[in-house]
Design goal:
The protein is of the alpha+beta class and 625 residues long. Among the domains are: 412-492, Sandwich (Immunoglobulin-like); 499-622, Galactose-binding domain-like (Jelly Rolls). The chain has 14 helices and 30 strands. The strands form seven sheets. An eight-stranded parallel beta sheet has the order 10-9-8-7-3-2-1-11. It has a six-stranded antiparallel beta sheet with strand order 12-13-14-19-16-17, with helices on one face. A five-stranded antiparallel beta sheet has the order 21-24-29-26-27, with no helix packed on it. A hairpin with a 5-residue loop joins strand 26 and strand 27 (575-579). Helix 9 (263-276) packs parallel to helix 10. The longest helix is centred in the middle third of the chain and has 17 residues, at 223-239. The radius of gyration is 27 Å and the shape is globular. The protein starts with 5 loop residues before the first helix and ends with a strand.
Length: 625
């Protein structure tokens, strides 16, 4: 039975339904705290009602100061890649045994001497710090994780103190929910919450949650649940941690449904962190549901968009498992990132050569994709054995600047295939342009300036090689090795080409099969053509150009997931092209396609075939080739 204030309320109104009383109490307790922002104070405060009020008042007073937390993607090191690998010698005492105080301190010292000056300043301790080498968890008298004395003989505060002594920031890890081992038959008390026990903070049926079903789902209708999260946050703040990775969060982590909806948990952590008065970066993991992107952005500073990058094999990663997945999955999230919260592509393991399990070309492409997506740059490599090539990748300041600057996240400007071009416009009017060859043999890749909305001459700088390449007219072509890449800054010297726009919903077009006009707030003219499936077609008629040639046609489209469509001009056979996801069915974006057009009137057709295709907003066609 709970005590004050819940017990007092129940005692005063014994005939009142318990659930209604609890909901009433929740409203009373949470009134005024619907919006929590990180407090500026650094002095940790106790999590009683008085100090919580003080912390939120401080947070409100500094709310207008802007998002100092995660103003840029964070950089650093994480323990998980080496923990999860079976590379000889990394885990000599059994699976995941790499994680020890000695190893964390060794990597801390190496980070301080090799990478700190380039911006890498987080040392993040991943899963297992509260588990023995048999993976058995340990908890304190309040149901909170407590460090394993063998792994961390001096405790977690001592480790954080050492990290701070090197001018670095300390990160730690927890799974979402109440771990089953912490339940203790429901009799474990919650710190600073008289009358609250673990039975009060979870559902009576002990429903499970998180990506492994290793925890009971917290019931935030009961204020005791928030008190438990408060106690965990206070513990981490008291130890001096600056970063928390909250793992197994759903919807995501390959789980869906009410049991795995942890938005309330994330909101509770956001509130609890604010209540500590200590700025703590909150990172969510893994494969988060993009349908809740607004929630992740409201309550956290970063979110893993994909599964683990590690291969769980005898290297840290492999190209197929699962570095190359990110080219397919990242575009959907491109509009979600910005100061305060970033799309997390996971660890960047490019520094150790053979341990990484990648070719040199793959290592460069890996780092290139992370940088143009403004993903956090945290390596899982052994920093004591970086090879010269890996060190050159991790410390290339021009590439790091791409990751850290204020330009939007890059997107593909061509359809998704073995050869891809990605890019974004920078604040100074230049463009970041990346060329990728994802195929298994060498191939030429071309970036057409028209794909970015300009033409004529442009100066090109090679960021990986720190070279000005001179002036290129209309395009640049590079022959890339298998899984290779180039990264450029392109500064236009020409003008925007004259184009003619053709709306998909125009009555001059021909729609067949299921194709139909639909409203679209983000589309030009407020409409698009959708339902392109089961042999449906959208044919643009009377596309007029002055002379024969190959034209770069920019296609504005909407697609909640990557979808293919066959595109052809006139009576051509066409090619099936996969368009990257725009993130949802209300956001429009652009890719360019190359089409042969003849002088005079032409048709351009989008043919679904027997699958589902993207919705089409409009096309922009240059007035001359």
């Amino acid at each position: 039975m709970r005590s004050s204030p819940y017990r007092a309320l129940c005692g005063a109104l014994p005939g009142f339904p318990r659930r209604v009383l609890r909901a009433t109490l929740v409203l009373a307790v949470t009134a005024g705290f619907a919006t929590a922002v990180p407090a500026a104070a650094t002095q940790a405060m106790a999590v009683d009602s008085k100090s919580t009020t003080t912390a939120h008042a401080s947070a409100a007073a500094t709310a207008d100061a802007g998002p100092a937390m995660a103003a840029k993607p964070y950089m650093g090191w994480s323990s998980w890649s080496m923990q999860s690998s079976s590379y000889p010698g990394l885990n000599p005492d059994g699976s995941y045994s790499y994680l020890t105080e000695a190893n964390v301190l060794k990597q801390t010292d190496a980070l301080a001497t090799t990478l700190k000056k380039y911006g890498y300043d987080y040392v993040n301790i991943d899963a297992g710090w509260w588990m023995d080498k048999n993976w058995t968890s340990q908890f304190d008298q309040y149901g909170r994780q407590t460090p394993d004395p063998v792994r961390f003989p001096h405790g977690m505060k001592s480790v954080a103190d050492h990290i701070h002594s090197k001018g670095l920031k300390a990160g730690i890890y927890l799974p979402v929910g109440l771990e089953k081992g912490a339940y203790g038959d429901g009799k474990v008390p919650v710190l600073n919450a008289p009358g609250c026990t673990t039975a009060d903070i979870v559902y009576p049926d002990l429903r499970t949650t998180n990506g492994w079903d290793s925890a009971y789902k917290l019931d935030f209708d009961d204020p005791c649940a928030q008190k438990y999260i408060d106690s965990q946050a206070q513990m981490l703040a008291g130890w001096g941690y600056d970063f928390l990775k909250l793992d197994g969060v759903g919807p995501g982590s390959f789980k869906s449904g009410d049991n795995y909806n942890n938005v309330a948990d994330v909101a509770a952590w956001h509130k609890a962190i604010a209540g500590t008065g200590r700025p703590i970066h909150l990172e969510l993991s893994w494969s988060l549901d993009i349908g809740h992107a607004d929630d992740w952005k409201e309550y956290s500073n970063g979110w893993r968009i994909d599964t683990d990058v590690e291969c769980y094999c005898n290297t840290l990663v492999t190209w197929e498992n699962s570095v190359n997945d990110r080219w397919n999955d990242a575009p959907a999230w491109s509009h979600r990132a910005g100061p305060g919260g970033w799309n997390d592509l996971d660890a960047i393991d490019v520094g150790n050569g053979d341990i990484d399990g990648l070719t040199k070309a793959e290592r460069q492409s890996y780092m290139t994709l992370w940088a143009i997506n403004k993903s956090p740059l945290f390596t899982g490599d052994d920093l004591t054995r970086l090879d010269s090539y890996g060190l050159s990748l991790l410390t290339n300041q021009e590439v790091i600047a791409v990751d850290q600057n204020t330009s939007p996240v890059a997107r593909p400007v061509t359809p998704m295939g073995d050869q891809q071009v990605w890019g974004t416009r920078n604040a100074d009017g230049s463009y970041t342009v990346a060329l990728f060859n994802l195929g298994n043999s060498s191939a030429a890749v071309t970036a057409d300036w028209a794909s970015f909305g300009f033409s004529g001459a442009a100066s090109v700088r090679d960021l990986w090689n720190h070279q000005n390449l001179g002036t290129y007219k209309d395009k640049i072509t590079a022959t890339l090795p298998a899984h290779g890449s180039r990264l450029f800054t392109v500064s236009p010297g020409g003008t925007r080409p004259a184009t003619t726009s053709y709306e998909a919903e125009s009555t001059n077009n021909t729609l067949t099969g299921n194709a139909s006009v639909a409203t679209c707030d983000s589309c030009s003219g407020g409409k698009k053509v959708g339902n392109l499936y089961l042999d449906s077609k959208l044919q643009f008629n009377d596309i007029t150009v002055k002379k024969d040639g190959i034209y770069t046609v920019n296609v504005h489209y909407v697609s909640g997931d990557p979808r293919s469509v066959t595109v052809y001009s006139n009576s051509g056979n066409g090619t099936s092209l996969k368009f990257p996801s725009t993130g949802d069915w209300g956001t429009a974006d652009t890719v360019s396609v190359q089409l042969a057009l003849k002088a005079g009137a032409n048709t351009i057709t989008f043919d679904s075939g027997w699958d589902y295709s993207p919705d089409i907003d409009r096309i922009d066609v240059p007035k001359s080739s």
